[in-house]
Amino acid sequence: MAAYLARRLIQSVLILLGVSFITFLLLYVLPADPVRQIAGRAATAQTVENIRQQLGLDQPFLVQYGRYLGNLLHGDLGRSYLQKTDVAELIWSRLPASLLLMAGGIACELVLGLTLGVIAALWRGRALDQGLMVGSFVAVSAPQFVVGLLLLYVFAVRLGWFPIGGYGTFAHLVLPALTLGILGSGWYSRMMRSSMIEVLRADYIRTARAKGLDRARVILRHALPNAILPIVAMIGIDIGIFMGGIVVVESVFGWPGMGQLAWQAIQRVDIPIIMGVTLVSATAIVLGNLLADLIAPLVDPRIKLR
Amino acid sequence: MKHWLASTALALCLAVPALAQDYTPDPNAKPGGAIVITYKDDVATLDPAIGYDWQNWSMIKSIFDGLMDYVPGSTALRPGLAESYDLSEDGLTFTFHLRPGVKFHNGREMTAEDVKYSLDRVTNPETQSPGAGFFGSIEGFENAGPDGLSGVKIIDPLTVEIKLSRPDATFLHVMALNFASVVPKEAVDEYGADFGKHPVGTGAYSLAEWTIGQRLVFARNETYWRAGVPYLDQITFEVGQEPVVALLRLQKGEVDVPGDGIPPAKFTEVMANPDEASRVVEGGQLHTGYITMNVTQPPFDKVEVRRAVNMALNKERIVQIINGRAVPANQPLPPSMPGYAKDYKGYAHDPEGAKKLLADAGYPDGFETELYVMNTDPNPRIAQAIQQDLAAIGIKASLQNLAQANVIEAGGAGTAPMVWSGGMGWIADFPDPSNFYGPILGCAGAGEGGWNWSKYCNEALDAEAVKADSFKDPSDPARLAMWSDIYVKIMDDAPWAPVFNEQRYTMKSPRMGGEDALYVDPVSIPINYDYVFIKE
Predict the structure, then answer these.
(1) Which residues from A are below 8 Å from B263, CB to CB?
(2) How does B380-416 read in b/e, with b if 16+ C-beta sit within 10 Å?
(3) What is the interface pTM, i.e. ipTM, of the complex?
(4) What CATH number matches the domain at B287-503, 3.10.105.10, 3.40.50.1820, 3.60.110.10, 3.40.50.11810?
(5) GO cellular-component terms in the record (chain B) (predicted)?
(6) CB proximity under 8 Å: B 82-121 to A
(7) Which end of chain A has fewer beta carbons closer than 10 Å to its terminal beta carbon, N or C?
(8) 3-state DSSP assignment of residue B237
């Protein structure tokens, strides 16, 4: 176990190094001169050169990358070109909002997805099942931007049940978390349905039924825990999908998280922020996957870590 | 502006006591209350030496003051922290007499030393100010550094003398730029690079709260040196709000002014509703949207081709694409700018004539080229209309839809044959015709990376521009006539195809008071925070 963990951690660091190198390279070759952006439209050529030197952007690529890594070891993610603030501070101040939103999104997709999946499996082949599966297909395919605006319009503007975007209270969380969760709930309900159907066909369920256990007990005690196993292992992987989702959802709802920060930075090519957010997201995804792998043997003893 | 500035010519060596016809505040204005403004993007910095986007520009104006200022809602200069000034006979020495008893937000009194410190700071290369270049006419600018500007001298605690190396008609406008704001040294030293997050000025409001990614709160400066203003106790800027969401919140009464304006997709709907339309204030702005053509490369090295492009455009139709939120333009200067050539007719829409010109230039069958455009609505749609107009005379332009920074890079590097300036169009830094020349049409901006994307460099015109800016009085009719002439000559060479001048539309909540001009203030976008008030 310890050896496995050590190996995975080393792998993770290598992956993150690769991510940082590729992102840095992509941003380096991007045809947009950050110095020009800082210097503004009225700057003289001398001002521009001056700023380039002060920021060390006149150095060769590898020197710049090496310095970035060196600073990174000290926890220094650099300073935003356009916001004139430490990137670490910007990300740190926005991290809680994103984590809260993700937690809300995961809760929504699990509750919705698992419940609907079980219902669909139990009513397999009937109208309810087909209706739910069409619904889940729509949920998976609907663009989050549209879903978000639709929820916002119906529940906040028309019905006035929730605030129109913003951050602060539980009421603010409901619609963005739902928007984020609906996509995942589509996947989860489909996976849960097939997993449940498979389990319901298994010998041990037949045995349980044959023992004369009542239907509710068979489903809740015997079928459900086994059907849920492969699904729970997915949550870690979800973090990666969510990282993409929060960019859209946070922008629509004015949620002050990292996704919004990333979106603004991408539009304005604020390279240090893009680097910082990419690295933090990549770290979250790598850790999420690691977590998923570590949890898997706990929920299913058949899986062994090697 | 005319009265006061004409008087400066007479009062050369005299102190000028009563300067401009100042602003008469609304007699019904009541102090108190709080308003909410929204923005999509985070606020970058409130450091007046650094901030240079239209979002923080007006915020900085309300936190800081410079020696000069503008009459609210207009482009007329009025005295700010300087009560009066003298200008020497040769037009090279300004002596500013400071207002006594002005206090920074930290309670300390502002003196001549602060003025010198602030000008030294903004021109010091260490500060990396994007506005440093504006101060180029101050003596010693070339050697600006830690030792400061040799041309700025403290005479006594309330008198500052600024020596210029050449007469500069625009100098008082420069002193009214945010970059010339007076900042206290101790606060800059305390916060260092983070001064922009902890601004301390002499302005009408002080920064009370800044929660990154969520909101900024401005509180009224109780000891503000201008009597009676500001009216509002508090202004909250909520950031991270999509314009569509901001509009919905305004309709629910949660927002007073959406800072990013009315989203294009909702404009018709808002204007069709009489109640909402009555709360939309329309005004001009010192903006021109244009197409640049790179004159250093074929086929745009031929003036006939550039004129043909000017004649190919159906500007009326392009204006319709943005719901008529602009007026067609025929020259670089916007109509509300002094020096605008009223009698100049420009190139009329004439596709047949354009085709003839192309044939004369040796392109009877047209040619293929690229049009660079910023990728946010409505610019790609505008570019498509331009593309169709060009196709009608045989020019096949493929569109390069890119992020703003990439378009600016391609324009600056000279790799873009044509650029549609939308989203990056020139908005004047100050209301003077010279501001539309140097960086975007003069030789100074034509180098690698400059904002003159046409790479047009006419040395004869450069010399005329220098002459025009050597006048002492910026509104001298002879000077304005020179500028008109310069821009008409530019149009003859046609490095640009001017397309339209954008109008501004500010929407406000029913409770907002103050005359309309405050809501389309030419220097304080979107609104003049110091003079608006709440009606109820």
Answers:
(1) none
(2) eebbebbbebbeebbbebebbebbbbbbbbbbbebeb
(3) 0.81
(4) 3.10.105.10
(5) ATP-binding cassette (ABC) transporter complex; outer membrane-bounded periplasmic space
(6) none
(7) C
(8) strand
Q: Which residues are CB-neighbours of A150 under 8 A, at least 6 positions away?
A: none
Domain boundaries, chain B: 66-185, 287-503
Structure tokens at A193: 């349905």
Gap between the Cα atoms of A81 and A100, Å rounded = 28
Q: Which amino acid is at B77?
A: L
Compute CA A85 distance to the chain's CA centroid, rounded to the nearest angstrom. Answer: 25
Does a cis peptide bond (omega within 30 degrees of 0) precede residue B27? no
CATH class of A88-299: mainly alpha
8 Å CB contact of A30 and B406: yes
Q: What is the mean pLDDT of residues B16-25?
A: 58
In this model, does residue B328 exceed pLDDT 50?
yes
Out of A38, A166, A261, name the one closest to residue B128 (CB): A38
Contacts of B192 (CB under 8 A, 6+ apart): none
Q: How many CB atoms lie within 10 A of CB B302?
A: 17
Domain-wise residue ranges, chain A? 1-87, 88-299
Q: Please report, for residues A118, B52, B214, B215, the alpha-carbon distance to residue B43 in angstroms, rounded to integers and kept in the order given.
A: 47, 11, 10, 9
Rg from Cα positions in chain A? 24
A42–B130: do the CB atoms touch at under 8 Å? Answer: yes
Quick: pLDDT tens for A132-158. Answer: 888 888 888 888 888 888 898 899 888
CATH topology (fold) of B66-185: Dipeptide-binding Protein; domain 1 (3.90.76)
Q: Name which of B44, B242, B406 is nearest A254 (Cβ-Cβ).
A: B242
Residue B138 DSSP class: B
CB distance A36–B408 less than 8 Å? yes
Residue A167: its chain B contacts at CB < 8 A? 214
Q: Report the DSSP beta bridge partners of residue B70.
A: B77
- Give the least confident one: B24-33, B352-361, B498-507: B24-33
